[in-house]
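>> received
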Amino acid sequence: MKNNYSRLKWVALIIIGGILFFLSKSAHAATTTPLPLQQAIFGVVQDENGLPIPGVTVTVKNTNRGTVTNLDGEYSISAPANGTLVFSYIGYKTVEIPVDNNEEISIQLEEDISALGEVKINAGYYNTTERESTGNISRVTAKEIEQQPVVSPIQALAGRMAGVEITPNGNLPGNASTIRIRGTNSLREEGNFPLYIIDGVPINSTPLESNSNLTFGGIDPLNTLNLSNIESIEVLKDADATAIYGSRGANGVVLITTKKGKQGKTELQARVYTGASTVSNRIDLLNTEEYLQIRRRAFVNDGLEPTEDNAYDLLIWDQDRYTDWQDIFFGRTAQVTDVNLNANGGNENTAFRLSGSYHSQGTVFIGDYDYKKVTAGAHVSHTSDNNKLNLDLSLNYGVDLNNLVGYLNLTANAFTLPPNAPSLFNENNTLNWSDWAEVGLENPLSGFYNTSRTQAQNLNSNLVVSYEILKGLRLKSNFGYTNFRSDELVKRPKRSFSPATRGNIANRSNHLFIKRNSWIVEPQINYRNSIGKGEIDIILGSTFQQSERKNIALQGEGYVSESLMGNLNAAEDIIATSNSNADYRYNAIFARLGLNWDKKYYLNLTGRRDGSSRFGPGNRIANFGAIGSAWIFSEEEFIKSSIPFLSFGKLRGSYGTTGNDQIGDYGYFDAYESTLGPGGLYPNQLSNPEYSWEVNKKLEAAIELGLFEDQLNLAVSWYRNRSSSQLVGFSLPAITGFTSVQANLPATAQNTGWEVELSSYNIQKENFSWRTSLNFTIPRNELVSYPNIEESSYANTYRVGEPLNISLLYDYDGINPETGLYQFTDVNNDDALDYQDRMIAWNRGREFFGGLDNVISFKNFSLQFLWEFVKQEGMLAMFNAGSLENQRSDVYQSFDSNNRFQQISRSIEASRAYSDALNSTFPIENASFLRLKTLNLTYSIPSRFLEKIGLQTGRLFLTGQNLFTLSPYKGMDPEAPARGTSFTALRTITAGVQINL
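>> returned
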């Protein structure tokens, strides 16, 4: 028995030893040569129309192994022969495919409409989804932005967001547009700018000053961004979304997120387009025959004989000459070219993206002027092997160069010059001074040789470092730095002016140097955990920010030669017209508590305690906060059973306060400025240490519905924002030596409105789809209260109960039957017209506005077009019949009937009546419009053709911007309806190609 036991023992030991030896060899093989157990798999992921889908997550089921598809929808991954690949992407149904020894697995993903609500939305300090959001956040994506041939990303938002109003301020590339998020909150123009944040770093949203033609509206600080490098733009509107930004979020927040690198092999993409822009409209003016006929009638009506002094257009200028001055001044074609290159790639831990672009754009105006922009961008992200440490670095750098004419009036002469006026140039292309001097006038192009050159450089950088110290608990901090420099040079040479006056004019140059620097550090603690059916999300953080602004304006005169202009060393005299330096410091602590229970009930609490250096020592600190909640009632069982066609339903609401410190720095100090030369100071500002924060209280209620498996989606929001303790310059009597002092006015402005967003999937077939989205806004702005406004300096500017954007006008009372001239209601019967008679408050704002967007796809073709619509009123000018100026053609059409316009006359009385008419209700007209804002046709080139030339994917596209406008308005552009002679929207058509290598 013993021997048997011994044998069994030895046999067991031998078997165990063999097993251990085999396992050790297997373990060694697994650690050193895993490839025999794996196989390389590659393929392409496409949508239902055969288009590649970048960014699809491809994982090996039940493992941590994964990758994402590249820009061409391609992927490669190692997986066991008996494994399963999982393909997942937001908005598409997840698919699992067994490997089964296949080397290539290519699939088409089916769109999952119900999953679109899970798309991540950037809410600033945290991410959320459309489904779970308790606040009001609008979003546009890269595809919608990069299709538009515009300079600033703000211009790309027009017509695409409810509650967001974009108004261009000019027609030159580089002009800053006005953006208003849910209306005008402040009596100060500079108090209504939203907060701009690029990749987590705030930038100064105030347009930059300029001495050139960009003066109106200023220069857009976002011009140096590359539109093709933007991933998305989110606009935060209500208190729940903005209160975490405290005083910086009073007027809304614009979050710009740039594109990031993607894991996988290195790829190169090129996108190029070129095209042209023209003015899309003309005002129908009088031709020479009509103009001269009206001019002659004016002398007959006045009982005067024309002379060479008062009627040189009738007696000296050629009676048969006709010039279309609109064509001369802005009838050119502006060329536009844009080139974009980017490369991205990486491995499982690190991803990178490099990008560069060149943009060139001309102008439609007479002269050789253009705008150029060069940008570069970089993004690097890294994750440690244990997924605890994350680094994210983004850099965006841009340089733009704006060459413009250095005089201010580019368009007015195009409408007022008589059609038989002499030529502006001689045959040798020099300015024609003699024909104009003959009648005592300067050439309308006086200043034509002036030039303006503005070069701006902008760096925006941010580093985000985060580390998970415990499960759900993460430390995070971002470090941001911005540097903006602008150098403007305006040259005014003597030859730009009439020879008769050149002797008193010196060659002159104006220099404007602007520098803006800022840094920001925001350490945070983030905690997220699940407790039963509930989830909790906590953010605690602080902000340390400092900004510096320097402005220097110099003027050089007395250059010996025009070639030396701009070199201040060569100037005979140098004058420092301004020199300012301001520092701004801002500190804050903030917190967020997000709760949800059972994915149905959501609560969001945010708070911020702000400190700003723009207030006196006793008023620097203020507290702001908000509460937001949402109930997804479609998840309730009684709803599911009673309303089967309701796929999604949510009620949400929010209330909170935000502040505003958009005022000048050091306003609470007595300020002094040095006198010219040695020896002195003089006061230039009165102190007021008592003024404090402007407060904006926001209230919102909304409902969101999804019907028929989210084929139809509807969201309706009502909001009310009240801004009180208005920070303005309180006017002072001139005897004090100052015109104003910074103070809080007891005025309250209110914005209310309705926002409607509707989207539908009209057709969803294998080779054909059609989607429609609509946004519609009905805003209402009102000055709710202003005690004793009649005794204030704003008595002739605002009216309680009326919008802030009003003009006080005379009430037009028809044609006086005795004089034949315009007459107006004399309210106080004092036989004089003054501000006391301007009792009509005309709302210059929009009654409603919105956009209608359609996307139609058929096989390899995709068509997108956006209609923008606005209901508003505007004004018209150019009806001073009989004056030495051209007129609108409808003046001639009532030439004999005289049933609308006053008697044709050149008398002082007629001119005064015309001037009063411009400030009355007479010229108000319907300026509503429906405009085809954008149209984009894309064709994806079949892969069989691309393979022959070594390309992976390629697309051809044709884009139209402002193609045509339907409007009863008789002015140039209903988007600029102040007087009818301004225009902002150029008709642009571009064609381009995008290829991936």
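>> DSSP finds twelve helices and 48 strands in the chain.
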